[in-house]
């Protein structure tokens, strides 16, 4: 079939016709041209972007009511020029703004006015900078109060712009990390009073109200007793490559940055994210995005609400009541959000079909990377996700979504309970041959429920998961995954190694997990490869033909409907060599990970 082609270049003009020699200048101009052509498509329509950075002033929004979809069985393809060849050009869709007007103070710290911007991320010469942080908590002897904290140290009284401070609580639940804003700091000669922002602090006290008696606990647990890390204050700018935002002057915010060696004012480029959505799609179909980089996007949720009250995965409390989950008199209880809110993503597709995202790079993003919700027949293939504040890929309530051959690493840099790949109550989802590396909590999360069925988790390579928080694993599944083994979840041929924090499980079937077959996987260097006793108990789960380096607890006396058979324990000290020497295990190892 004939192919129609339009071109876009940073050197073009939007009033040109979009030809190779007279290209458009912006993605939005190309989109307007596409809309005039889709009703009479006789072949695929390709929009080819020449090399460069395309600064988006507004999201690139695809809407079926605006004729953005492919028609007559053909697709609209947005791609880097030369995609799939050795001459493929580098194309960046950026939601950021370059910061200029820098000056250096006597201490070497750069400052620049940024107006009303309040960025949580900064990229300097395309390298992420870190928020300035104090990693030893509050100074002095600290007591939690009804409204915040009191310390016998007067040091906090010297910190400028205390209202910009954010306290971080790793392990507020073992699997959660909370962030809470400071409202004010006051004091006298011998003590300092820290008042936290409301209603976030009161909501946090309600959400993280728990008792824990398991594993020898005495029932006492207060994850908010004292923050472990303090972020975003000029007083903390000790490390090279760190930044802080002073918002003490409304509308006259100032960005402070301590440069790395070799960075120079006038030669170094600093970008702060501005847009919260880079690309979105609603009810569209037959669109392909490939070979593009999506970078420098913002999320202002914690600033708007006074904190990030994480619970599990991508869920957090933002408003509403709390539900008490009683795990039994011998275990304890926790509270959860009655109506949890999901972490958004900077690239989103809602109620779409036949969408392909291939060979793209999602980076320097302040929310999640990609979210697919309520959609059908979506392919997410061969992409790279890194330097993302939240999750890499999130699938919610979808059907026939394929997530294959992606590389996901260094995600959850700010919201550290975020999974690399998350699938929530979806059906016929395939998560296969992805590589996941260096993530702070779970690698792959599959959450079940009434709609969940026929999920395939196959041939993934998960390395160095659980780098910050506890009570998770390389692959985590919870709740029923269907109503029979035939329609349930299959976890097959995955390799999980180096699950880092304590109290973790390589393959974790948790919280009433049911109708799951775990077959032919490799797990090594985790606390334990699987767990057999969870609450609520798992039912109808089979662990067959797996290889691991330690015998799981309770292996010889599993729950009544749980099958453990044909699994092999290889010596921990020589595990890697033993795997390669075992033909079946070596085949699993050889097939795991990306095929691109």
UniProtKB/TrEMBL annotation:
Pfam families: Beta_helix. It comes from the Bacteria. InterPro entries: Beta_helix (IPR039448), PbH1 (IPR006626), Pectin_lyas_fold (IPR012334), Pectin_lyase_fold/virulence (IPR011050). Residues 369-523 form the Right handed beta helix domain. This is Right-handed parallel beta-helix repeat-containing protein. It comes from Tenggerimyces flavus.
